[in-house]
Amino acid sequence: MKIEDIERRLSVLRVQRSRIDYAIETLELQLQVESNAKKRKFESNEAQNALIGGSYVLQKVKCGKPTCHCAKPGGELHGPYWHLYTKKDGKTTCKYIGKNKPK
Questions:
Q1: Considering the chain, what is the average pLDDT of its residues?
Q2: What is the C-alpha separation between 38 and 74, in angstroms, rounded?
Q3: How many folded domains does the chain comprise?
Q4: Pair 30, 57 in one domain
Q5: 80 and 46 within one domain
Q6: CA angle 84, 58, 37 (to 5 degrees)
Q7: Which of 11, 60, 97, 98 could make a disulfide contact with 77, Cβ separation 3.0–4.6 Å?
Q8: Furthest CA-CA distance within the chain
Q9: Does 93 lie in the same domain as 59?
Q10: Which domain holds residue 83?
């Protein structure tokens, strides 16, 4: 392979690398912004629930898809997942929290 060909290929690859680096940085920033927004919303909801009072419950659930293994008799359920049960005006409400219990 000629030196000119190698230099040309290197130049093309460097341009591609810079575009990839830019795309990665953009996506990482977008992920960070979304994660921070979700965290702020979650913390706000948790603060409200702490004022109301409630119970965290770890439970397995059915997903609701009729063809899923969890819908079959004796099928393995999904989870376990944390749920927050609160009571307001005599009614019990359940809110999905996720795989990790908030601290």
A1: 84
A2: 36
A3: 2
A4: no
A5: no
A6: 50
A7: 60
A8: 81
A9: yes
A10: 53-103
Same-domain check for residues 27 and 46: yes
Q: Look at the pTM and tell me if it is higher than 0.85.
A: no
Structural tokens at position 8: 């040309």
For residues 38-76, one letter each, b for 16 or more C-beta atoms within 10 angstroms of the residue's C-beta and e for the rest, the string is: eeeeeeeeeeebeeeebeeeeeeeeeeeeeeeeeeeeee
- CA-to-CA separations, 76 to 50, 60, 81, 82, 99, in angstroms, rounded: 32, 9, 14, 17, 17
- How many CB atoms within 10 Å of residue 22? 10
Residue 52: the pLDDT is 56
Query: Mean pLDDT throughout 75-90?
Result: 87
Residue 34 CB contacts under 8 Å (≥ 6 apart), including other chains:
none
H helix or E strand, kind and range, residue 40: helix 3-52
